[in-house]
């Protein structure tokens, strides 16, 4: 595996798109003169173990072929190692790829970006967020949307996207603000009655919902979107504007910036890159240039 490009593949991503995208991506990379190896885990923990072994064995690059869940595993394998990351976005969300201007569901174009960046010597340094030993590339969120995720994960019926729609309706019926305490960098504690708090290394989550629309992955700072206490009617009015980032101009929304943020609230769980982090309090910090991403910004 030494000096090969390793494709970390989730064959089920994007309703099978991960499996369908792996072959054309591998073909483009081989045509560019690179040996290619596939890494497919039995489950998430096995995939991460195999990816870390590939990096330790001297992989030229690790290329995630799948959605944001697989990219999150890949970040945990390469962050801080010097091994560059490529992304062939084949999931339903693809928010990490979107933040970096990478092709979406175009495996040949994405692989060509990877090959071109390797030929040019390198990749673009990209910031990541970190909570303890957990890395995230896009958004950490607590409050309403995390409660929706938490409820949906506990539900056994219905299946698919409808499960999240039902969870949203249930959480809207029980809508309540939480008494958040925020500490930005070394500043004083701030008190916010908030419906949700989103800490953005990247701009979007949930497949293009631009909850932190001005967040950048190269400035060493988080954008922190605080949606204050509001009625169901107000929240329903604000939510559609998240798609294009217009919510930040609403009177109930505050945007803050910091390199380190501590969140405390009586919330059951926070989520980062769509995965649960556990309950609050927690401290997230930016790690500038934590990973080199091949083909970013092209």
Topology of this protein?
Elements: E1 5-9, H1 13-31, E2 36-39, H2 44-56, E3 61-66, H3 68-78, E4 85-89, H4 95-99, H5 107-119, E5 124-131, E6 134-136, E7 139-143, H6 144-154, H7 161-173, E8 178-184, E9 189-200, E10 222-228, H8 232-238, E11 253-258, E12 260-264, E13 270-272, E14 275-278, E15 282-293
Parallel strand pairs: 1-2, 1-3, 3-4
Antiparallel strand pairs: 5-6, 5-15, 7-9, 7-13, 8-9, 8-12, 9-10, 10-11, 12-15, 13-14
Helix pairs in contact: 1-5, 2-3, 6-7
pLDDT averaged residue by residue: 91
Briefly note the structural class of the backbone: alpha+beta
Please write the CATH class name of the largest domain: Mainly Beta
At CATH level 2, the architecture of the largest domain is Sandwich
The structural domain count equals 2
| CATH topology-level name of the largest domain | Tumour Suppressor Smad4
Please indicate the percent range of residues in DSSP E strands (runs of 2 or more). Answer: 25-35%
Gross geometry: globular
Tell me the number of helical segments per DSSP (H or I, 4 or more residues long).
8
Total number of beta strands: 15
Radius of gyration, in angstroms, nearest whole number: 19 Å
Regions with little confidence, pLDDT below 50 for 5+ residues: none
Q: List the secondary-structure elements in sequence, H or E.
A: EHEHEHEHHEEEHHEEEHEEEEE
Helix content: 25-40%
Distance between the termini: 28 Å
Cofactor: Mg(2+)
GO cellular component, one term: plasma membrane
Domain DAGKc: 1-135
Pfam family, one: YegS_C
